[in-house]
Write a sequence for this structure.
């Protein structure tokens, strides 16, 4: 009997403790919409999101969004970042002590309690589809925290991302300046490639040499803008895995390898199976420039590919200076001179 | 009728081998395929036929034979129809090894080697967990396999958690199985261990009939159960680990093919094992040829093997009322 009573007490005590713990950080008021009224922005899923007049505590669950917020001059409002920000080379250069900023995980493994403990007045997340059933949306918004969703399928979406974050952080004018700078680089590339008649076939390889950029997405846009043709564009998906035989059948003139791939140019060039491919025979294989995709630097990736594919069209242009000027104008002096 | 089935299963790889060499997205004319095989044709056609298609076809044959023969052997050794070559934690160990190589190890460390070594390590761990005194009871062995698989699955999950989502897609694709990475180096790397293990299993195949009766019965006819069981486990593991190392995890083949063959020709391993080798090879080759030819994509072979095999398996199961297992 005594044993039963003791056991009941322990169980009751356990539930009381669990209840008290549950009322900790998660129960705190994390919505800042009450003070000073609110305003609405429309995110990239077309959702109307209510935000405080002034965003002061933002959590960014995407490293490219962090770069944009830095370029907008709103870094002071960031209280938490995705754990992938700690590994981003550009961010580490721009914000040397970024590791000191807390991280609630990432869009793939969010610790909701840690997020709420940061008392954010907005959370910026990324969506891989246009669907509104983003896994994090319900989880975060149900706790009263506004969520702005970004979604990038092309260069136009990157401009829109910069403008949207400019709106969220009250830096519209600065966002417009950055978009203008980016469009300036694209216009420069277009202008230089005006006279180019022959468009080389270009494939963009990802985690393995048979996984390619398909007909959707940013890298497909880059190939087209850089004066190339993507033979894998017939697949209406961002990435397609094809057989090596299919790649040989396309016979691309140039091959771009994802910068973080575990294989390299030498591996492709020395592989006997690739030897009949024109790009390999001519040595037109390279790893892409190491930059983020959905951030202002993307236009430098475009410039890099365009110059590589059509060097004659850019004769006399000091590309190094061009890039340095762009980086300084977007990120300021922290972008460095290299 | 049974003789016809036996002959068909035995010869099944030959027409498929010929057909697979002539099929592909490049569209090499039939005459050029033959010329390429004998050193003629243009360089592009030679590369496609000799350096891309031929190693892929040979690997599919080797892997199919290895997984099917290993499955048949282990099902008999463990006296359990649910056993596959992966029962001792091989696939989980190999998956962890491959993921480790793709994410944390230096890029110079080959994925194949890492998958092979960790696959063997997982089976060794399972074997030593199961070993009690001088014996390795079958039930303990299967349970130890489950434990080891769980351990390596957890380790794999840690790697997946730590890995950049973009890079993770390579791990996921590897886990689904594909012959897309086939080259002559892969064929050379696995041909000796797979063929060697198949020869051992083939020569010892009659012993599977005795082992499948159970330990007591096998001992009563004077068989050294531990030694024979160990030999089959080592041969099966070597063949399957080699197979996994070059094409990732191909599910179902090692479980399904032995059952299909058993339903068609009966449970005598003297006939069953060689037919598992030939039909397994043919099945894997047919599946891979479909995977690379039915769409412009190179589909993961595990998807096709399951989709193609399950209806046939279900049909035979219904027809034979019990699957021929006894």
């Amino acid at each position: 009997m005594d044993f039963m009573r003791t056991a009941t007490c322990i169980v009751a005590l356990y539930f009381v403790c669990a209840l008290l713990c549950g009322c900790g950080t998660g129960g705190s008021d994390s919505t800042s919409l009450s003070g000073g009224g609110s305003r609405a922005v429309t995110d990239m899923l077309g959702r109307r999101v209510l935000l405080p007049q002034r965003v002061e505590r933002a959590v960014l669950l995407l490293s490219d969004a962090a770069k944009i917020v830095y370029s907008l001059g709103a870094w002071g409002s960031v209280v938490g970042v995705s754990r992938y920000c700690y590994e981003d080379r550009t961010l580490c250069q721009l914000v040397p002590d970024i590791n000191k900023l807390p991280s609630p995980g990432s869009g793939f493994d969010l610790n909701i309690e840690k997020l709420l403990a940061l008392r954010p007045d907005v959370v910026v997340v990324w969506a891989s589809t246009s669907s509104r059933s983003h896994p994090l949306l319900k989880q975060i918004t149900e706790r009263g925290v506004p969520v702005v969703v970004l979604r990038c399928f092309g260069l136009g979406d990157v401009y829109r991302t910069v403008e949207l974050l400019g709106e969220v952080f009250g830096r519209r004018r600065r966002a417009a300046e950055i978009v203008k700078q980016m469009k300036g680089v694209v216009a420069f590339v277009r202008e230089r490639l005006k006279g180019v008649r022959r468009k080389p076939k270009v494939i963009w390889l990802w985690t393995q040499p048979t996984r390619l950029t398909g007909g959707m997405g940013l890298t497909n846009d880059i190939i087209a803008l850089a004066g190339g043709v993507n033979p894998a564009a017939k697949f209406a998906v961002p990435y397609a895995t094809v057989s090596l035989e299919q790649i040989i059948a396309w016979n691309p003139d140039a091959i771009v390898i994802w910068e973080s791939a575990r294989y390299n140019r030498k591996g492709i060039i020395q592989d006997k199976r690739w030897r009949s491919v024109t790009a390999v025979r001519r040595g037109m294989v390279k790893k892409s420039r190491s930059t983020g995709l959905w951030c202002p630097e993307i236009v430098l990736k475009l410039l890099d590919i365009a110059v590589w594919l059509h060097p004659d069209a850019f004769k006399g242009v000091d590309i190094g200076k061009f890039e340095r000027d762009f980086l300084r104008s977007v990120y300021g002096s922290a972008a460095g001179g290299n | 009728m049974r003789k016809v089935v036996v002959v068909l299963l035995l010869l099944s790889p030959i027409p498929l081998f010929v057909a697979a060499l002539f099929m592909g997205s490049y569209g090499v004319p039939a005459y050029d395929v033959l010329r390429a095989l004998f050193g003629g044709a243009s360089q592009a056609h030679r590369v496609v036929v000799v350096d891309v298609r031929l190693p892929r076809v040979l690997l599919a044959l080797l892997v199919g034979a290895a997984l099917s023969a290993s499955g048949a052997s282990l099902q008999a050794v463990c006296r359990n129809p649910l056993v596959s070559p992966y029962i001792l934690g091989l696939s989980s160990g190999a998956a962890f090894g491959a993921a480790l190589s793709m994410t944390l190890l230096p890029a110079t460390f080959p994925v194949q080697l890492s998958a092979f070594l960790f696959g063997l390590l997982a089976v060794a761990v399972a074997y030593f967990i199961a070993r009690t005194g001088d014996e390795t009871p079958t039930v303990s062995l299967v349970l130890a396999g489950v434990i080891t698989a769980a351990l390596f699955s957890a380790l794999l999950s840690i790697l997946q958690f730590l890995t950049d989502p973009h890079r993770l897609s390579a791990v996921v694709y590897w886990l689904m199985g594909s012959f897309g990475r086939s080259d002559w180096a892969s064929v050379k790397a696995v041909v000796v261990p797979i063929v060697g293990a198949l020869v051992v299993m083939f020569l010892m195949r009659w012993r599977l009939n005795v082992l499948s009766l159970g330990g007591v019965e096998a001992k009563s006819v004077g068989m050294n159960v531990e030694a024979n069981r160990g030999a089959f486990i080592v041969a099966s593991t070597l063949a399957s680990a080699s197979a996994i190392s070059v094409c990732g995890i191909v599910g179902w083949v090692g479980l399904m093919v032995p059952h299909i063959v058993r339903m068609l020709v009966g449970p005598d391993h003297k006939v069953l094992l060689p037919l598992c080798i030939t039909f397994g090879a043919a099945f894997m080759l047919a599946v891979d040829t479909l995977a690379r030819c039915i769409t412009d994509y190179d589909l993961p072979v595990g998807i096709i093997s399951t989709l193609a095999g399950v209806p046939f398996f279900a049909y035979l199961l219904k027809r034979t009322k019990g699957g021929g297992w006894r």
